[in-house]
């Protein structure tokens, strides 16, 4: 590994060179079936022709102008997002963390301009991941990501999903601004929250004038088989939502969506970004949105998810010494492992399969939304071979 790079990543020893659909090719000529997809980002697979064409066409016209001008692509993509969700307005950034940052700022600002500047506390949950900016790591509260970065910021409260009494108490406090939650916890290990809990939280926030933020950076844009995960449930809509990853199909982009009431607090000068919403990102984002929002794409996610989860449950039953259970929603799938998940990820690579890690010792499958049923079957065959190899390896070590 190059010493000229900060050593913040635990990288797999693969020099990746190009991708095509579900396949990722390395410099040394190997091909891997890719169930990482840039961590739920390359949602239409690698080098999707429509996205490539959109990027090439825009690249010849205009890359960047800054937000001191009207950018038609921003208005178009915002109209699509508003048309498909609870939201009335959108702010574009470049990443998930920035989308979360904007969401947290918008929540506090909403209360400040509505006569309650004391409402600054953000309630977040154990097992969440909201990104790596100071605000995002404080909202997630994971000690591993806070260590060595000075004191924790004031105004962040950490609770557990299952402790309804503590959540109720926190939301009632007059200093609480917002609750932030991932409808499906991604990095935390593909934990899907149920609709009853999400709508209970919505009602609780409404009752006490607290804003509800959904972080759908990972679960959004078709990943669960609906455009957004919360749309599976009635009465679960947020006031603010962070979106990124699949929104650009692999091109860096993030968006913070909000109701008119919240967006109304974000007046001129309240927030901004140099690159956010640049013409290149918008051109790809519009093309990606139109592909993802097609009913055929979302139906494919549901069908592939059924195929994969059925097959994986069967494998878990046959390999109880290797895998514990299957969880998640749609194509955000987690398998809790008995051996260390990093060892399983390495064994999967030996079978030319790429899978991601996750909390609670999970491996995560995050294939593109366009995965075919044949490809899903091939994924299952490679996982079976991986589990069989794990059984031999870890039985021998025991
Ligand atoms: C739910 C969630 N929120 C926020 C982020 C941060 O996004 P980014 O890495 O683009 O800043 C991630 C990244 O994995 C995520 O999964």
Summarize the SSE layout with pairings.
Blueprint lengths: L15 E5 L2 E4 L4 E4 L2 H4 L8 H13 L10 H13 L4 E5 L2 H18 L7 E5 L8 H7 L2 H4 L9 E4 L4 H9 L3 E6 L2 E2 L5 E2 L2 H13 L3 E5 L24 E4 L10 E5 L1 H4 L15 H14 L2 H24 L4 E7 L2 E6 L3 H10 L2 E2 L1 E3 L3 E4 L7 H25 L1
Parallel strand pairs: 3-15, 5-6, 5-7, 7-10, 10-11
Antiparallel strand pairs: 1-2, 2-3, 4-12, 8-9, 11-12, 13-14, 14-17, 16-17
Helix pairs in contact: 2-10, 3-10, 11-13, 12-13
The structure holds pyridoxal-5'-phosphate (PLP).
The site of pyridoxal-5'-phosphate (PLP) has 15 residues, from helix 4.
How would you name the CATH homologous superfamily of the largest domain? Type I PLP-dependent aspartate aminotransferase-like (Major domain)
Chain-averaged pLDDT: 97
- Strands in their spatial order, largest beta sheet: 4-12-11-10-7-5-6
Strands, count: 17
Cofactors and ligands: pyridoxal-5'-phosphate
Oligomer category: single chain
Write a brief caption for the model.
With 398 residues, this protein is of the alpha/beta class. It has helices spanning 37-40, 49-61, 72-84, 96-113, 134-140, 143-146, 164-172, 195-207, 260-263, 279-292, 295-318, 341-350, 373-397, and strands spanning 16-20, 23-26, 31-34, 89-93, 121-125, 156-159, 176-181, 184-185, 191-192, 211-215, 240-243, 254-258, 323-329, 332-337, 353-354, 356-358, 362-365. β13 and β14 form a beta hairpin.
Characterization of the model:
With 398 residues, the chain is of the alpha/beta class. The two termini are 32 Å apart. It has two domains: 122 residues, Aspartate Aminotransferase, domain 1, CATH 3.90.1150.10; 244 residues, Type I PLP-dependent aspartate aminotransferase-like (Major domain) (Aspartate Aminotransferase, domain 2), CATH 3.40.640. The protein has 13 helices and 17 strands. The protein is 40% helix and 18% strand. The mean pLDDT is 97. Bound molecules: pyridoxal-5'-phosphate. The site of pyridoxal-5'-phosphate has 15 residues, from helix 4.
